[in-house]
Design a protein that fits this description.
The chain has two helices and 96 strands. By secondary structure, the chain is mostly beta strands. It folds into nine domains: 266 residues, Kelch-type beta propeller (Neuraminidase); 100 residues, Immunoglobulin-like; 92 residues, Immunoglobulin-like; 157 residues, Jelly Rolls, CATH 2.60.120.200; 94 residues, Immunoglobulins (Immunoglobulin-like), CATH 2.60.40.10; 91 residues, Sandwich (Immunoglobulin-like); 150 residues, Jelly Rolls; 91 residues, Immunoglobulins (Immunoglobulin-like, Sandwich); and more. The strands form 21 sheets. Strands 72, 75, 76, 78, 79, 80 and 82 form a seven-stranded antiparallel sheet that branches. Strands 26, 27, 28, 30, 31 and 32 form a six-stranded antiparallel sheet that branches. The longest helix is centred in the first third of the chain and has 8 residues. It is globular, with a radius of gyration of 40 Å.
Length: 1211
C-alpha cells in the first residue's frame, strides 16, 4: 500500500534536496508586504451536496487520504466510523472533498478546520466546515510556498483556543520537527521551539492531540508517546505504544474521558488500524482494523467534551462592564442538566473560573490568578468582579460534580481601549507632478474586537527606501495623504502605522511606485526591481512584438535585474529606452557610464546613447557614445559611456537606442550613472591616449597623449597649468607635467607599474577653471597568463588509447605578452586525476583507457607561464572501450536503469531534467504501459519542459563495421488527442567521435489518429563505413505531453534488400517503383513500404510499385523492405520528396560525391541547396549537364531542383 508520507519521511527519501528557512521570530500574521492578506478567502468552489453529520458518542470522523479499495467507491473526503470496539466493516462518507488531500485537521466550535492541498499543484488551503451541516463556510489560500507551515497533525487546545502542530524543517544538514501554534480564526502562527527530549534529542512527531486540560501529547516515528510542553516544545517520554515504526501521515484525537484515539499505519505489518493509547502507560490497544487499510488524518469526535454524568456547560457567559473600562463583572448561569440531558437536582456544583491574559497580544498566555472556585446551585447566576488590564483575556468556566467536569465554556475579549485594526485597501499612486498619493480605508474597529474610538485615530507615515518620516500624528477622516517632499525620481513605498487611544496598531506597507518629478546629479540606477525599470520609457519604433522568455518581447524589457533588448528574428532593432527626467545645468560637463553586454559574443549588439529634451526619439539631439558591435558577454566588462554638456539649464533625458541586426541575441544594460565631471571652461580631454607595455614582458609602461587644445565646450584653450597622470584611480598623481602647452605631444614612462597585472591610467589637464575632462586607457603589463589552447581535439587511437592534440596559444588572457617557448601544459581527466604535467609538446597520448567496458572520457588542458595558469579548456567527450556488436538491444527492463552502458544525454533543457528511465507506476500517464511488458521504458518529460527545448538520449558506442543492411528500430507511444501540441521524437546518429550529428528523419509527432505503440525503423547502410557510431532519440518539447520510447534495437538483416527505389510526384500522389532483390533459394512473400520510418501498408505489397496519397506538404522519406518467409530484409535506398509539388518535365539525378553535391539534369532547372537548419548554401541553375556544389561540413542537406526536393547525406 503506497501511503502519503509525512514531511519528515519525505525528507528522508529526497536526501536533503529541500531546505527550508530558519523558523520565523514572533507572530507571523501571514501578510504580504503590500498589506494584503496572504490567507485570502476563496469563493465559489463547487462541492457535492452536503450530508448532515451523524451524531453519537461512538462515532469518530476523519479525512481519507488513501485506501486499497476502489477509489470510485470512495474518494477523498470526510468519513465516519465507530470506535466502540465493534469491527469497522466500512467507513461512511460524510462530505466529499474532491481534488484536495487533507494533511491535518481539528474540531472546534462545531467546525472542522482542515489543512488541504490541491492535487494539481503545491497550493495549500485552510478549509472551514460547519459540522452540523457539513457545509463549507469559507476557505483560505495559504499560498504556494507555505509547505514550511504544514503540520503532520494538528491538536486543538480548548483552553487557549489555539491549535498546535509539528512541522518538518531542514537546514541543509539536519532535519528537525518544529512546534508551531496556530490561531485558526485570525490566520496567524508562531514558532514555539524544536521538539526535543529533556536530553536534547530531536523528535519527529507525527501524531498530536491535546486533552481537556490543554496537555499536548505526541507520538514520534518510532511509536513512542510523549507529553509536550506547549510553551517550550520540550517532550517528556511516557513510553512505547507497541506500534512499530511509522512514517505516513497520521490522525489522532483525545475524547472527553481522556481516550487518545489514533489512526495509525504500521510499517511492519503494512496494516492500518484504530488504537486507544493510554496516556499514563503509553500502551496502545487496538480497537479495530480498517477494512481496506484506510489512511486517515484529522480525526475527531463531535460528542460533548465531558463525561456522561458531569454537568452540561454553563450558559450566558459574558463580561459586564462600561465600554473601555477596566473594571467589570463576569456573569454566567449554572447548568440544570448533565451532558446527557438528565436533571442535576439541587446539590450545589463547584464552579471553576480560570482567567488568562495575553500580555503582548502575541499568543503567549500568562496566568493572571489562580483558579477561582465558587459554589453555585444548578440554574443560579454567578458573578465575579475584578480589575483588568488593557489586553486580551481568555476566560474558561467549568462546573463539576462527583461524576466529573463539564465542557469548557470560553469567552475571549479585549479589556480597555483597543488599538486600531489593520489598515485596509492601502493604495499608492503617482500624481501628475510626481507626488506620492496614498489612500486607504481607515480602521473602524479595534484589532482585537474591543472598544475602539475612531476619533482618536492618527497615523505615522514613513517613506522607503530613504526612511524619511513624512508625517507623524497625521489625522485624516477620508484616509488620504499626499507626499510633496520627493526631490528625486525613484521607486518608493510607504509604511503606515495607525494609533488610537488604545495604542499602536499593526503597520502596513504600500506597493512600490515610481515617484518624483525629476532626478538630480549624481544619478544612479541599478535596476534592482522591475518597478525601477518601469520609470523608464520604452519606444518600439518598428512595432514587431514577438514573444520571448518570461514577459519579454522583441523590444526593451526587464529581466535578471537589468534592462534587456530581445532580438527580432526578421527585423533589425529600432528601439529606444529612455530615462526619467534629470536636471542638467549649462556650463558643466557630465559623464554617463553604464554596463552593456551581449548575450552571446558571436552575436554583437549595436547601441547608441544620446541626450534629449523629452521622451520622443526625435528630440534626442546630443550624442554621447556609439557602440556598433558590442561583443562583451558579461557584466564584468569595463564601463562604457561618454560625456556631454547642454546649452541651457533644464530637464533632459538619457536615451539608449538599440539598432542591432535581425536575429541577434540579447543586449543587456545595467548600472547607469550620470556625474558632473567639470566646469564648461575647464580643459577638454587629452587625445590619442595610449599605454604601451614594455617589450617582451618587461615591467614598464609608456603613457603617451596630446594635450587638449580646447575646453570642454570646444572653445579655444589659451593655457594649461598642468597635466596629471593617475594609476588605478589613486588620489595622488604618479606623474605631473608642468608647465604644459595646449596641443603639445607628451609621453611618460612608468618604471614601477603593477607587474603581471592590468594597469589603468587616467590623464587630466588643469587650468584656472579647475579640473578638466578625464581620459583613461589600460594595458596589461608584464608576462601574461596564456590564453586557451586552440584546435583542441580528443580521438581514439588504433589501439584504444586517447590521443589529445591542440595548438599553442598566441596571446595572453589579458592580451599581454607570452613567450610560446616557455609555455607548459598540464592535463587532468574528467575525474580530476592529473595525467600529465609540464608538457612542452602540443599532443599527449593517454594509454590508461577503459579496456573491458565503455566509459565516457574528456580532458582539461591548462596552459601555464610564470604569470600563472589559465582556467583550462575541455576536449570533446569521447566514449572509450569495446563497442557493442550487433544485434544490440535496450528495453529499459525494470524501469531502474539500462542494461547497456553508457547512455548519455546530449543537450540540456532549461529545467535541467529531461530523459528518465521509469516504471509505469512512476509516470503521470496511466495509459502508457511498457511496450514489451518488462516494467520499464524511457520518458522525455516534455510536459514540464518549455516549448522548443530539446535533449537527445544517446546510446553507447555500437560497431557497424562489416554489417549488412543494419537498421535502427524503436517503439514510440502515440496519444490520440485533438490539439496543436507537437511534442516529438527525432532519431539521429553521431559520427566522428560525436562531432557530427545526422538526423535520420524529420521529427515524429507524439499525437496521432490512433493511440498506442508504433514501431519505427531506419536503415543505417550509409554509415557502415564509419565503424563506431552512437544512435540517439532527440526529444523535442512543445510543452504538451510526455514522450515514451521502448524496445530499442540495432540489428543487421541476413536477407537481400530491395534495390533501385525511385519516386515520382503528381500533385499529392507519390508513385514508388523498385527492382526485385536477388533472392535465390529464399521464399519472397512481398514488400513493406515505410514513410518516415513507419510502415504504411496494411497488407504485404506484391507488385513492384506502390502509390501513396499524402495530406500535407511536408518533406517525406520512403524506403522499401522485402519480406521473406524467414524474416524481413534491411531497407532499400531512401528517396525524399515534398508532397503537393508537380512532377517536373525533365529527369534529374542528385547524389553526393566526396564532400560535394552533384546535380545532373537533361533540361534547365533552378537549383537551391539548404542546410538542415534552413540556411541557404547555394542558389543557381543547372542546364543540360551537371552542377557540382562544394560542401565543407558533413551532414544532411536539402537539394531543390525545379519542383522536386532530395534529402541528401554528405559524409
Amino acid at each position: 500500500m503506497k501511503k502519503i508520507l509525512s514531511m519528515w519521511a519525505m525528507s528522508l527519501l529526497i536526501g536533503g534536496s529541500i531546505a527550508f528557512a530558519a523558523p520565523p521570530e514572533g507572530v507571523v500574521r501571514l501578510a504580504k508586504e503590500d498589506g494584503t492578506r496572504l490567507i485570502t478567502p476563496r469563493q465559489n468552489r463547487s462541492l457535492r451536496a452536503a450530508v448532515r453529520a451523524p451524531q453519537g458518542d461512538n462515532l469518530l470522523f476523519g479525512s481519507l487520504l488513501d485506501t486499497e479499495a476502489t477509489w470510485s467507491d470512495y474518494g477523498l473526503g470526510v468519513y465516519s466510523f465507530p470506535f466502540d470496539g465493534t469491527p469497522i466493516s466500512d467507513i461512511t462518507r460524510v462530505q466529499a472533498i474532491d481534488g484536495l488531500t487533507t494533511y491535518a485537521g481539528v474540531f472546534a466550535d462545531n467546525r472542522y478546520y482542515a489543512i488541504t492541498r490541491l492535487l494539481a499543484m503545491e497550493t495549500f488551503y485552510l478549509d472551514v466546515y460547519n459540522t452540523d451541516t457539513w457545509e463549507l463556510e469559507t476557505y483560505y489560500s495559504l499560498g504556494m510556498s507555505s509547505i514550511r507551515y504544514v503540520p503532520n497533525d494538528l491538536a486543538y487546545d480548548p483552553v487557549t483556543e489555539l491549535a498546535y502542530g509539528a512541522v518538518f524543517d531542514y537546514d541543509g544538514q539536519n532535519r528537525f520537527c518544529l512546534l508551531y501554534k496556530y490561531d485558526l480564526r485570525k490566520g496567524t502562527l508562531e514558532y514555539v521551539g524544536t521538539t526535543r527530549t529533556s536530553e536534547g534529542s530531536v523528535l519527529s512527531i507525527l501524531a498530536m492531540s491535546a486533552d481537556i486540560d490543554g496537555q499536548l501529547y505526541g507520538i514520534n516515528n518510532e511509536g513512542v508517546l510523549y507529553k509536550i510542553d506547549k510553551t517550550t516544545a520540550r517532550a517528556e517520554r511516557v513510553g512505547l505504544t507497541g506500534v512499530p515504526k511509522i512514517s505516513s501521515l497520521q490522525g489522532s484525537t483525545i475524547t472527553a474521558d481522556g481516550r487518545f484515539l489514533w489512526a495509525a499505519y504500521d510499517e511492519v505489518s503494512y496494516k492500518s488500524a484504530l488504537y486507544d493509547v493510554n496516556t499514563t502507560t503509553a500502551k496502545a490497544t487496538k480497537i479495530a482494523d480498517f477494512p481496506h487499510n484506510e489512511q486517515m488524518t484529522g480525526i475527531f469526535v463531535t460528542a460533548p467534551f465531558a463525561k456522561a454524568g458531569a454537568p452540561a456547560a454553563v450558559s450566558g457567559l459574558t463580561m459586564i462592564n462600561e465600554p473601555g473600562s477596566l473594571a467589570g463583572s463576569l456573569s454566567f448561569s449554572a447548568p440544570t442538566t448533565t451532558t446527557s440531558g438528565a436533571a442535576l437536582g439541587s446539590s450545589p456544583l463547584s464552579a471553576t473560573i480560570r482567567i488568562y491574559r495575553d500580555v503582548e497580544n502575541d499568543g503567549v498566555i500568562e496566568t493572571v490568578c489562580e483558579d477561582v472556585t465558587k459554589s453555585v446551585a444548578p440554574g443560579a447566576t454567578l458573578t465575579y468582579d475584578w480589575e483588568m488590564q488593557q489586553t486580551n483575556y481568555i476566560i474558561s468556566v467549568t462546573t463539576s460534580n462527583t461524576a466529573g467536569k463539564s465542557e469548557n465554556s470560553v469567552i475571549k475579549f479585549w479589556a480597555g481601549h483597543d488599538f486600531p485594526a489593520e489598515i485596509e485597501d492601502l493604495k499608492l499612486e503617482r500624481a501628475d507632478n510626481g507626488d506620492g498619493v496614498l489612500t486607504w480605508t481607515p480602521p473602524v474597529k479595534g484589532y482585537n474586537g474591543g472598544y475602539f474610538l475612531p476619533s482618536t485615530l492618527e497615523y505615522d507615515i514613513v517613506r522607503l527606501p530613504d526612511n524619511k518620516v513624512v508625517a507623524q500624528g497625521y489625522k485624516t477622516e477620508e484616509g488620504r495623504f499626499v507626499d510633496n517632499t520627493i526631490d528625486k525620481v525613484n521607486t518608493y513605498r510607504y509604511r503606515l502605522t495607525p494609533r488610537s487611544s488604545g495604542g499602536e496598531g499593526p503597520s502596513v506597507l504600500s506597493r512600490e511606485c515610481g515617484l518624483g518629478a525629476y532626478s538630480t546629479v549624481p544619478y544612479e540606477e541599478n535596476f534592482d526591481s522591475k518597478t525601477a525599470f518601469d520609470l523608464w520609457t520604452v519606444v518600439d519604433l518598428n512595432q514587431h512584438p514577438v514573444a520571448g522568455p518570461g514577459d519579454w518581447s522583441s523590444t526593451w524589457g526587464y529581466g535578471s535585474q537589468c534592462m534587456a533588448y530581445v532580438y527580432e528574428p526578421n527585423n533589425a532593432a529600432d528601439d529606444w529606452v529612455i530615462s526619467p527626467p534629470i536636471f542638467i545645468k549649462a556650463g558643466a560637463v557630465y559623464q554617463v557610464s553604464f554596463k552593456a553586454w551581449s548575450d552571446m559574443s558571436n552575436y554583437p549588439e549595436s547601441l547608441k546613447v544620446m541626450v534629449g529634451t523629452s521622451t520622443d526619439p526625435a528630440d534626442m539631439s546630443i550624442s554621447i557614445c556609439d557602440y556598433p558591435a558590442i561583443k562583451d558577454n558579461s557584466d564584468l566588462s569595463a564601463d562604457k559611456g561618454g560625456s556631454f554638456s547642454v546649452p541651457e539649464d533644464g530637464l533632459y533625458y538619457i536615451g539608449f537606442y538599440c539598432y542591432s541586426p535581425a536575429n541577434s541575441a540579447r543586449l543587456y544594460v545595467d548600472k547607469v550613472r550620470v556625474d558632473m565631471v567639470s566646469g564648461i571652461d575647464a580643459p577638454g580631454a587629452v587625445t590619442g591616449l595610449k599605454v604601451e607595455p614594455g617589450a617582451n614582458g618587461a615591467c614598464s609602461a609608456t603613457v603617451s597623449f596630446t594635450a587638449p587644445s580646447s575646453t570642454g565646450s570646444d572653445a579655444p584653450l589659451s593655457s594649461l597649468d598642468k597635466i596629471e597622470i593617475y594609476r588605478h584611480g589613486s588620489a595622488v598623481a604618479v606623474a605631473t607635467i608642468s608647465p604644459a602647452e595646449p596641443g603639445h605631444a607628451y609621453s611618460w614612462t612608468d618604471n614601477s607599474p603593477e607587474d603581471m597585472e592590468e594597469n589603468t591610467y587616467q590623464v587630466i589637464a588643469f587650468n584656472g577653471s579647475g579640473k578638466g575632462y578625464p581620459a583613461e586607457a589600460s594595458a596589461y603589463i608584464g608576462i601574461d597568463i596564456p590564453a586557451e589552447v586552440g584546435d583542441l581535439y580528443l580521438r581514439h587511437g588504433d589501439d584504444g588509447e586517447a590521443i589529445i592534440t591542440w595548438t599553442a596559444p598566441t596571446e595572453g588572457v589579458h592580451g599581454g605578452y607570452i613567450n610560446p617557448a616557455e609555455i607548459t601544459y598540464g592535463i587532468v581527466d574528467n575525474t580530476g586525476n592529473p595525467v600529465a604535467s609540464r608538457l612542452k609538446a602540443t599532443t599527449f597520448t593517454d594509454i590508461e583507457t577503459p579496456a573491458n567496458v565503455q566509459k565516457m572520457r574528456f580532458y582539461t588542458v591548462k596552459a601555464s607561464s610564470e604569470a600563472g595558469t589559465n582556467t583550462g579548456s575541455n576536449t570533446n567527450a569521447v566514449i572509450f572501450g569495446p563497442s557493442y556488436k550487433l544485434p544490440f538491444a535496450e528495453s529499459f527492463a525494470g524501469g531502474s536503469g539500462t542494461q547497456t552502458s553508457p547512455w548519455t544525454i546530449l543537450g540540456v533543457t532549461s529545467v535541467g531534467f529531461d530523459w528518465h528511465v521509469l516504471m509505469q507506476s512512476q509516470t503521470d500517464t496511466p495509459e502508457a504501459f511498457p511496450q514489451d511488458g518488462d516494467s520499464g521504458f524511457a520518458q522525455f518529460t516534455s510536459y514540464s519542459i518549455p516549448k522548443g527545448d530539446a535533449a537527445t538520449l544517446t546510446s553507447p558506442l555500437i560497431s557497424l563495421e562489416g554489417e549488412v543492411n543494419p537498421e535502427l528500430s524503436f517503439w514510440f507511444y502515440h496519444y490520440r488527442v485533438e490539439n496543436d501540441y507537437r511534442d516529438a521524437i527525432q532519431p539521429v546518429i553521431t559520427l566522428d567521435e560525436g562531432l557530427t550529428l545526422i538526423e535520420l528523419s524529420e521529427p515524429i509527432v507524439a499525437t496521432a489518429s490512433d493511440a498506442g505503440w508504433t514501431r519505427y525503423s531506419f536503415p543505417l547502410n550509409d554509415y557502415v563505413g564509419h565503424g563506431r557510431v552512437r544512435l540517439g532519440l532527440k526529444g523535442i518539447s512543445d510543452y504538451g505531453y510526455n514522450i515514451f520510447v521502448d524496445n530499442i534495437t540495432v540489428k543487421a538483416s541476413e536477407f537481400p534488400p530491395v534495390t533501385d527505389l525511385t519516386a515520382s510526384l503528381n500533385g499529392r500522389k507519390v508513385t514508388l517503383i523498385w527492382n526485385d532483390p536477388v533472392y535465390e533459394g529464399l521464399d519472397l512473400h512481398g514488400y513493406n513500404v515505410y514513410r518516415d520510418g513507419e510502415k504504411i501498408n496494411t497488407a504485404l505489397v506484391t507488385d513492384l510499385m506502390y502509390e501513396d496519397e499524402l495530406a500535407d506538404d511536408f518533406l517525406h522519406t520512403y524506403t522499401v523492405t522485402a519480406m521473406y518467409s524467414a524474416g524481413e530484409s534491411g531497407h532499400s535506398n531512401s528517396v525524399s520528396l515534398t508532397s503537393g509539388l508537380s512532377a517536373a518535365g525533365y529527369t534529374t539525378h542528385v547524389y553526393a560525391a566526396g564532400r560535394s553535391i552533384v546535380v545532373e539534369c537533361d533540361g534547365t532547372a533552378p537549383v537551391r541547396v539548404f542546410t538542415a537548419s534552413g540556411i541557404t548554401l547555394f542558389a543557381g541553375e543547372v542546364s543540360c549537364g551537371h552542377l557540382t556544389v562544394p560542401v565543407v561540413t558533413p551532414g544532411v542537406y536539402l537539394v531543390w531542383v525545379g519542383d522536386s526536393v532530395t534529402k541528401l547525406t554528405v559524409k
